[in-house]
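We give this protein:

***
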Amino acid sequence: MNRILGTPVESCESRKIRRLATVKHEVKLESTKSVLMKTQEGSPSDAAKSVWHSRRIEFWRAWHTYRMQSGWRYSICAHSTSTHSRSQIELPFTMRTAQLAVISGLVLTPLAHPFLASNSAASEHHSIQARQLSNAVDQWRPQQRSTYVAESGDISVQRTSGDTAGDYVQAATAFVRSIHPDAEFRQINDNYVSSNGIGHVYFKQTVNGIDIDDSDFNVNVRADGTIFSYGDSFHTGPTPAAAPAPAEVLEPQPALEIVVDVLALPIDPAEAQIVEETGKSFVVEGLSNVESPPNGQLVYYRSADGSLVSAWRVETDVGDHWLTSYIAAENENNVLAVTDYVADAETYQVFEWPLNDPRGNERTSEVLPRDIRSSPLGWHQDADQQYFETRGNNAIAQPNEDGDAIFIDEPRPQSSELVFEAPFSESWEPAEYINASTIQLFYTSNKFRDILYVLGFDEEAGNFQTSNFGNGGSGSDSVILNTQDGSGLNNANFATPPDGQQGRMRMYVFNQSTPHRDSSFEAGIVIHEYTHGLTNRMTGGPANSRCLAVLESGGMGEGWSDFYATAIRVSASDTRDADYPVGDYAFNRPSGIRAYVYSTDMQTNPYTYSALNSLTRVHQFGTVWCTMLYEMLWNLIDEYGNTAALEPTLGDDGVPTDGRYLAMKIVLDALALQPCNPTFIQARSAIIDADAALTGGRNQCLIWSAFAKRGLGEDARRSGTTYVDGFVVPDGVC
């Protein structure tokens, strides 16, 4: 494990905490939770957990709104002896009543209890409809049925004719027939060849001339006509012998009424005028509150048990929701599935990237902050599943107050609309804003991960993803993000196993201030820890996580982590006179937790290579290494400039266009070049080589000058355990 501090973790049995009544483990919440979590076997059910989490979040949001509006506050002192023994806290009547009501599922009107700002009847009705719609979509979400085979070598289908545009389509069609020789299917006319030379062809399965709407096959074909990969969700079970007789099919009008009733749509079916009816399709005109006329198509669809049933696919576009509903065509009481074309934008109430911490800053709602190049499915979906909590292909974030290794059942912030919001105040104790902490940690980690992906830490390089989408490397290793981890104080760490096993980040509470501070709200600490995953995976190869094990290489591991944390923090308005500490927010110390702040001023930070002679710990070695990299960073920024861009922009040659991201890219590329357990000199040489490979060596003078200034020039040497400064830049470089 790697720690951001070099000091032992301090533990304490009890402490006086100034807090509001909004504490996660209130007695009444705990007792209600135990009731909700009970099943016949006495173990928690997923449904019970969902109810508990949603009601808990709903209550705390309502209570926070009331508290902010009323200005009501009080302080208590609680002596906690264990997670099972809590101080009995007498809550004010208003709060206590609200708590019990929300937990029990009651609706409290604003007139009775002023928790929420009063709404007009229209807006209240709209919000109720929105909740019903959201619940319906969740309830009837389609099942996951597809499989994906990456770079299959089992079957190779060569081109059958000349070098024409249709060849890869023919190859794909032949391949589908080889996998499903008895299936009926049709080609969907949206095939294309992408910029990487891979052709993409799509097929829909049919039975009796009718589409099976949830049965698809996509084939990806190499330029030579062989199959690169494919996805398959074709139905392989029994199929109906004939299409349903018209007399057996539900009429369009009742089908529409079912959709309107189930989804509580703002549509009056009595206004419906069914037109263009063919027995297999229909269009509805004359309706108000729709963006376009609803329409229906007769299809087959798989029921919950996997059997094929005939169904009306009814599309209703009501603005905020463009819904596709599947209604059993021969059973008017059976809703098969509901989907929504309108995907709610992923939104996070956070301190915006790259703000380092809360001081002097305000949280904002960041919409769709992911980089599409790095996270094409967003942050809440992998190849198999969509998540509506702080979980996705790259990371899974949750509080871990008891500090144990069992994280999967911990409560996470949830949102069916992927809008993650939670109250936060610097005047509160960390336990009072634990959901906000989880959201912030999830956001910061994903932002940094996306940047690293663009710079080269991708699947083949050993990054952390559940699904690798056929891009090489070993998947099933998204990062476990534990916030307010109870296993320690005043620290943070990251465990990096080989590629294919999940990394784990533990973020602790710091008790160096009153109230205490949460390290998940200091972006620099989060970035520092995540970078340990980067450097351990890339040095020596993804399968070997033991290549930063000795003092010198382990020290550079700490230095690389500080470097990325600092480089991200550098703003477009900064000059090389800017100095940066590490850990200054969490530790409540302006100078941070290192011996010196990072600076290009030799008076402010005098470290050179020979300083290693008097240092004995990895974090001390790391400060020397990062000081050298900080010099290089500013040489490149002075040459190429810096921007406020939140993600790297790469030129046609793959080189970042500004100096800050260029420095980050060169350092990252060098990790893959250097040997296992490198020395300072070897790591410097790898950086020189990385620039040569990336840019043809056009930055050799800038890089050599940075290292030489800090004693790691061409003539620097290590003699036994003695480090000797060298300030020479090689001849001809500058």
User: Anything to note?
Assistant: The CA atoms of residues 38 and 275 lie 52 Å apart.
